[in-house]
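Dear colleagues,

As part of the handover before I leave the project, I'm documenting each prediction I ran so the next person doesn't have to rerun anything. This entry is a single chain, and its sequence is reproduced below.
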Amino acid sequence: MNIVPDPGSENPFLPGARRTVNRRDFTVSVVNQPPPADPAAREPNTLYAAVSSQAGEVLIYRVYVADKNRDLTGGVGLPDPRLTLASGEVLEGDAACAALSVVNQPLPKLVLPPAQYAALRDQPGEPPEFPALDPPVFHRSFNTQTDIGCIYDVPTPGNPVPCGGNPPVSVGQYATLDNAYIYAAVNRGLGPVLVLQGKLPTTPPTYQRDPFMEGGTQLRYWSLCQNESLATTKVQDCVYDEQIPLDKDGFYTIVTSRAEDRPSNAIERCGAAWVEWPVQGDGAGHPDDAFLIVRNTLPAPDFSEAIQNVSKPGDEASVMGPYLPTGEYMSRTDFEALGCQPSARMRP
């Protein structure tokens, strides 16, 4: 949305824009400079990459959901890199990669060291389902130290109160500045089937190659993912906005369980989405653990219930209202007894 297209091209991501337009070229510059102190002084289509504490940078090109039957790039391929040296010389292809000392390898995983994770997860005197609670409690993600304090109820450096105060928001785990997250530690020892309900923010439909980018929506993108833990950060399964059936009031029912525990009515036809529980639990020896994450991307200025508007821990419910998921553990039999359209029987 923030990219100004090249002359003669259009930006298909703008509200109301034609998504099928042929000319959609853009140019984005990555400069070895710190960002201007005054945001108004930033150049358009420019990423400021100079950070004094880092020897290198990671440039990520991200596509969340391509249109139906498109490849991972959305059918347009990857951008063509061109490196302009201080001398004015322009390098392309392998020459540009060599000059930048590009390392061709997967991104490193940003995980907790095993000993630290074990000390947090296996605290003496805690129940086997720790740190999960019944019902699940969702926290806004602020920064790694605050998140650890909120999950495991321990003080961390700079946070003597485990889950309080006014923590700063810092982007980590390769997240972007346009996203905000809530998370909850969950455990199937509290029930093999976890049912999540909440109101889904409105988002523009795109997957079916809709010809125009719908305007007036609350978010650009919403998703819920089942992950292992901070020990691995591995994602098991996700659902995003267009995959989720809604009731007449715009509320969703999402069921998460192991494949063998999936209720027969946890299907789209019965108004429920299903997300697989991590096969390896937390990936660190606790087979019943899991870690839920909900993403809000690019909220509209007037969507006051967005995760981005939660300014301190504990305000999630008062800020997000019906858009904050609620959860209930139950058995497969209990959920199947609700029949088709279980939302009507579960919501007050």
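The two ends are 39 Å apart (CA to CA). The helical segments are 93-99, 114-121, 144-152, 316-320, 332-336, 343-346.

All the best with the project,
I.
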